[in-house]
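Known limitations

Files may contain more than one protein. Parsers should not assume a single record per file. Below, a two-record file is shown to illustrate correct handling: read the sequence, read the token line, then continue until end of file.
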Amino acid sequence: MAPRARTRWFILLLLLPAVLVVSCARLPVKRPDILSGPSAVPMPEKLIPSAYRPALDEAEKALAEGDYLRGLRLYEAVLEKEPPAVVSSWGRFRAGQILVALDRPREAVPFFEYVVEHIQGEAFEKEAVVSLVRLYRRLEVPERIMTLAEDLRSRNVPAVFLVRLFQACLLYTSDAADEE
């Protein structure tokens, strides 16, 4: 083999791993679909002020397309504008869901905690309670579940929130028993 041909093969062998890495990085990663399934909750459209609808619709579109990082950035951009309470809670709820889907549970906890601290009786807030219970279990801090239950009870939130909390505890317990 001529030296020139060897040089070409050598360069080709050096570039091949880089090409593989770049092409693999562009492959879509299958993520849990947060827009369907048991944790799917529709946006409380009637409560969202019209000024925030385009930004939230764009974020939801990104999620529907499976672009969770873009959806997260769009929700964070909405939250930076210090929106009204329902928009703030909805944005944090959805950001928490996205972070869980991206396997970043520790980052998701404060988003769900915010929603639970500001409960106004919306459907997505019930799911935030369930998500928080799941995260506390996943992160192995179950004692925080009792703290959460006491907090909800002391704030006189609607009973349905406590029911969802205990349903989540029971569901998680039965899921854990099934795995064993």
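...continuing to the second record:
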Amino acid sequence: MANQSINDRIALALIKRKAARYPQARFVPNYAQAKRILMAYPSSVSASELQDIERFSMDLESDRIKVVHAIYFNTKDKNQLPLVSKPNRHHWGRWDFDRFYFPLSEELIHLLRGDTYDMFISADLNDSLPIAAMGATVNAACKIGHYHKSFEGFYNILIRGAAATNLNQYLRDIKTNIKNLG
């Protein structure tokens, strides 16, 4: 997102404005008491990055935290989506968002707003607008994402530094930060 187009800048402004209409969860996140985490990432992650995400999820689940995955596929064709093969996995495509990347489909809005999550984690190092819009919209006490100046209003905790290009390091930094919450 280093070279933002005018459409991206308009989309960011609209996402911020629309997201402000949704009230956010009003409780203090605490890792020791966390029960549900929503993790969003693009389908374009590499096989090794997907293994890092799976390991991270298994670590959380070993601490009795339910992890729900929201995977974004950058396609307009519903037939290109794979079948969901695991529980707590949800696949979303371009048709689930409006033209400015704000969540549009009832199912996606229900996933983001229908339940309350202790934390939302964006495992997207490419700073895609659909995942940022999910982070801006989700009903979570704590939202964690990759640092980008444009996303400062979307997340409570922004991770930067060495984790900027390495998903494994990024997830380790997240784990360290969320364990310090409580």
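Parsers that stop after the first record will miss the second one. For reference, the second record is described as follows. The mean pLDDT is 84.
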